[in-house]
Amino acid sequence: MPAPTQAATDHTNQTERIFGLFKTMLLIRAFEEAAHQLLTEGLVHGSVHQSIGQEAISVAVCGNLRRDDLIQSNHRGHAHAIAKGANPTAMMKELLGRAGGTNGGKGGSMHIADFSVGMLGANGILADGMGLAAGAAHAVTLKGEDKIVGVFVGDGSTNRGPFYEALNWAKVFHLPLLIVCEDNGYASTTATRGVTAGGGPAVRAASFDIPVVSVDGNDLLAMDAAAATLIERIRNGGGPHFLHAATYRLKGHVSRDPGLYRPKGELEARWDHEPVRRAEAWLAEQGVTPTEIAAARAAAQERIAGGVAAARAAPFPDPKVAYADVQDVGGPSWPK
Ligand SMILES: Cc1ncc(C[n+]2csc(CCOP(=O)(O)OP(=O)(O)O)c2C)c(N)n1
Ligand SMILES: [Mg+2]
Question: What structural domains and CATH numbers belong to the chain?
Answer without folding.
Answer: 51-87+113-249+259-300 (3.40.50.970)
